[in-house]
Amino acid sequence: MSITMTERAADHVRSYIEKRGKGIGLRLAVRTTGCSGMAYVLEFADEVAANDEVFEHNDIKVVVDQKSLAYLDGTELDFAKEGLNEGFKFNNPNVKDECGCGESFNV
Known about the structure:
This protein is α/β, with parallel strands linked by helices. The chain contains 2 helices and 9 strands; from the N terminus they run βαββββαββββ. The longest helix has 14 residues, at 7-20. The radius of gyration is 14 Å and the shape is globular. The model has no long low-confidence stretch (mean pLDDT 87).
């Protein structure tokens, strides 16, 4: 099982951790919501719980709980700027369908 992060995404997270002044990386999870069933949740990670898996890329840790990992295995986290919009992109091979607004997915 693995989660990867592009260099561009790692640079973005690193910059925010430096501005924030604390943190070990990024916590990635899923929650039940939206019109397709699940949505990604991103937060800064300050610690690792006993049931977490930790993946490290470009010196940034990605912390994922065991329940979410089943839906996120193989995901690549990227960061993109398109015109005036910018944000994280999730290249998740487990996704079977996404809603029209792009906020939720199902597996």
